[in-house]
Amino acid sequence: MILLGKVRILFSLFILFRYAAEFCMGGDVITASEYIQDPGSIISSGGLYKLGFFSPNGTTNRYVGVWHNKIPKFNVFWVANRDKPVLDSSGVMTISNDGNLVIMNGKKEVVWSTNVSTSGANAKAQLLDTGNLVLLKQSSNTGTNGTVTVWEGFQNMCDTFMAKMKLITDENTNEKQVLTSWKSPSDPSVGSFSISLEPLNIPEVFLWNGTTLHWRSGPWNGKVFIGIPQMQSVYLDGFSLVDDKEGTAYLTYNFAEVSYLSFFYMRSNGELLQPFWDEKYNHWRIDWSTRESECDVYGKCGSFGFCDAKKSPICSCLRGFEPKKVEEWSRGNWSSGCVKRSLLQCERMKNGSTKAGKMDGFVKLETVKVPNYAIWSSALEDDCREQCLSNCSCAAYAFDAGVGCMYWSGDLTDVRQFTNGGTTLYVRLAHTELEGKRDLRAIIATAVVVATLIFSICAFFAWKKSKKRGGKDTEQFAEASSENMLGESFRKVNLQELVLYKLEELAAATSNFSDANKLGEGGFGAVYKGRLLNGKEIAVKRLSGASGQGLQEFINEMVVISKVQHRNLVRLLGCSAEQDEKLLVYEFMPNKGLDAFLFDPLKREQLDWRRRFNIIDGICRGLLYLHRDSRLRIIHRDLKTSNILLDQELNPRISDFGTARIFGGKEDQADTLRVVGTYGYMAPEYAMEGRFSEKSDVFSFGVLLLEIVSGRHNTTFNEEDQSLSLLGLAWKYWEEDNVLALVDPKISVGGFEVEIKRCITVGLLCAQELPKDRPTISTVISMVNNEIIGLPTPDKPAFTERQTTTDTSSSRQRQKKYSANHVTLTALEGR
Ligand SMILES: *[C@@H]1O[C@H](CO)[C@@H](O)[C@H](O)[C@H]1NC(C)=O
Ligand SMILES: *[C@@H]1O[C@H](CO)[C@@H](O)[C@H](O)[C@H]1NC(C)=O
Ligand SMILES: *[C@@H]1O[C@H](CO)[C@@H](O)[C@H](O)[C@H]1NC(C)=O
Ligand SMILES: *[C@@H]1O[C@H](CO)[C@@H](O)[C@H](O)[C@H]1NC(C)=O
Ligand SMILES: *[C@@H]1O[C@H](CO)[C@@H](O)[C@H](O)[C@H]1NC(C)=O
Ligand SMILES: *[C@@H]1O[C@H](CO)[C@@H](O)[C@H](O)[C@H]1NC(C)=O
Ligand SMILES: *[C@@H]1O[C@H](CO)[C@@H](O)[C@H](O)[C@H]1NC(C)=O
Questions:
Q1: How far is the CA of 325 from the centre of ligand 3 (A)?
Q2: Are residues 450 and 428 in the same domain?
Q3: Is the dihedral of CA 176, 179, 184, 186 positive or negative?
Q4: Which residue range(s) make up the domain with 367?
Q5: Does residue 512 lie within any of the structural domains?
Q6: Which residues form the signal peptide (predicted)?
Q7: Which of 385, 491, 499, 828 has its CA 20 to 30 A from that of 436?
Q8: 3 inside domain
Q9: For 612-653, how does the pLDDT look when each residue is reduced to its tens digit (9 = 90+)?
Q10: What is the DSSP string of 403-468?
Q11: Is there a single domain that holds both residue 181 and residue 256?
Q12: pTM, to two decimals
């Protein structure tokens, strides 16, 4: 009996040990004692990734790699001993005596090692939940939590570019991190394809086949690669390129949605693709690939060739060019490319011709991938063209708001058509090559004009005018982005434009801040109209309770904000900071706020649809400048009709921007105790939790847009349906597929139905409950201007219910509270 009992105890102990041993193997670390032996593995702490031995399809060789643990594996992201397999199943991965992570075969020979000299005793390797395998060593430095990373798999990439990896290029040392393909599906050793980031000039990703360029992403414009039109919307927030302006840059990405499982993988045949785990259907889907069409292959149609996958044959010559070798070209061998038919004017002049003829011109190619090897110039949009014309070796130019002016000399290679997205490219041609088409265009234009009513001619001119203004906007963007590129240099800019006014001067100008001169009251204080001694009219904002900053900080902030200039922003002229008064001086806008027009029974008639659209577009552009293109990344936080001022021509100017900054909010996204803003415009996450981001401005913009279209106030309108807010009403009409019912009856809709509907849809998209569902402002611009085909379907907006009557008073109180000065003050004291 007793014996049996003992056996039983021993047996259970044995079970316990076995369990313990297996448990250890399931951990996420490898140490000298906790090694893994084929077929053992470790799993990252969150269970997402697994590291272990595997054999690729078609071989019995053993490799150590990392792959998805919870879902079927698409591929092995990372392989340690890719060049040196263990030939049988005797492999062991452990920490060697010198502190390196090693793989040994059955004969205890090291087949692979992290091979770092700095690794000490007690080193350990850990598989992180990002899929990164790191080698950690003990550190005496307590600040680093006892360990430092001495080696990581993410810096020794294989064929997969995972979230948080950094594709680094250092031009100073000429060191590049590259992704390299497998040799074949059954051989992980380094194959012929590689991917690198080339930050020279304008950063771009290249995929090489040996030393031959196989695919390129197109230039990086600060948000997307302009040669990948799919990036327009999907990846907008994921990718970033960090450039230290000193020759080192890296590309990285991180999906905002943590649960989004996706990565970039290069097959052994050189195809780069993006698989994505579709949770709904439990399978891998390919979202994007570099082999979607033959035109993806670099230089498919040779130099000066043009690739259009929708045409047959796919290759043609650029306009004004003809095949270099007609016979080969007709056989479908396009590699020889094309040559120019007529010499350019400047070339003829060089030849010594006295009759050089008329000036060269440009043929415009829309939605294309720009050629390779762009040269960057600091020229603005209009000058970009002039600069190209003035240099005989300039063959084409293009302007992208994010990149600036690009031009090309020599061959134009890898130009292809996109269906949407892409860039507008201007190819230089001799005048004679351009004439034919222009005549045709004139004929079409005449036909259109004849066939159209006078009304639409007017509309056309109004449209042209607004387009022209749009052009000037991009000019300003260019200014901003070239400024970015110039990096440091802005610090040296002379900062004298900001005027420091005397308090008494401003008191005199505003009749001592008399109520008669008061223009309005904003979230940060009252605004007064003033007239300086020299007769100049100004608007003076008296910051209530001042800010928590010191004087110098305040002035510094003002200097910076005074540099933020855009035609859709009200200009800050100066400031004053004396005693406890802090005053901001703006240019005066005689037309006052948009609310004065929009909600005025008479004046609103001045705002026809064209004007309203122009206002919507202008607000977008101003906001984009604040969010993205100014150096400061300003979140407005109090966007509303009364903060949109109108200039003489009824162009919108955003006012009150940067005020939140002066009060100390500097993070891109932050939690704040001080909820400033106006009830009815505030995004739910901001109103309720004090979380603000660019997306909370987008929400306010959505409300604003719907107000402009409908001519109704979101907070104070009493309409048919008392229980609905403006957002609720818009949503109701949307669901009834009757959004035009929302439109201000003062607008004559005729001919603009599609545009108006699109705007309302964008408004609803912006006002969605969840910030991540709302588009960014740059996407909004593309949507409003119909550059995105097929808008997403909006979800129900936030705040669709209207407060009941009893609640209305409390909501007024809330409004008061949110903008009340003491709230601001109390919180500031708490800082
Ligand atoms: C492995 O190879 C076989 C035969 O070549 C093929 O049918 C199978 O799909 C391959 N498996 C994977 C995972 O590639
Ligand atoms: C380890 O690195 C040294 C130089 O740092 C090099 O000479 C040696 O070949 C490397 N060993 C392995 C196994 O890679
Ligand atoms: C130190 O590391 C442990 C475990 O890795 C972690 O829980 C802890 O928060 C870290 N402490 C600091 C100060 O980083
Ligand atoms: C890559 O280059 C090799 C050798 O130049 C060539 O044989 C092969 O076809 C190329 N692959 C692709 C996909 O272009
Ligand atoms: C295509 O043209 C190039 C250059 O003209 C030539 O070298 C090559 O042999 C041709 N290829 C084929 C398949 O004819
Ligand atoms: C002009 O020069 C080009 C080469 O630069 C030559 O091919 C062409 O024949 C010349 N034309 C005349 C009219 O001299
Ligand atoms: C014309 O363009 C070429 C090519 O970029 C450049 O080397 C040259 O300096 C330019 N010439 C002038 C006058 O700007």
A1: 67
A2: no
A3: positive
A4: 296-435
A5: yes
A6: 1-26
A7: 385
A8: no
A9: 999 999 999 999 888 877 666 788 888 888 889 998 888 999
A10: TEEEEEES--B-EEE-SSSSEEEEEEE-HHHHHHHHHHHHHHHHHHHHHS-HHHHHHHHHHHHHHH
A11: yes
A12: 0.57
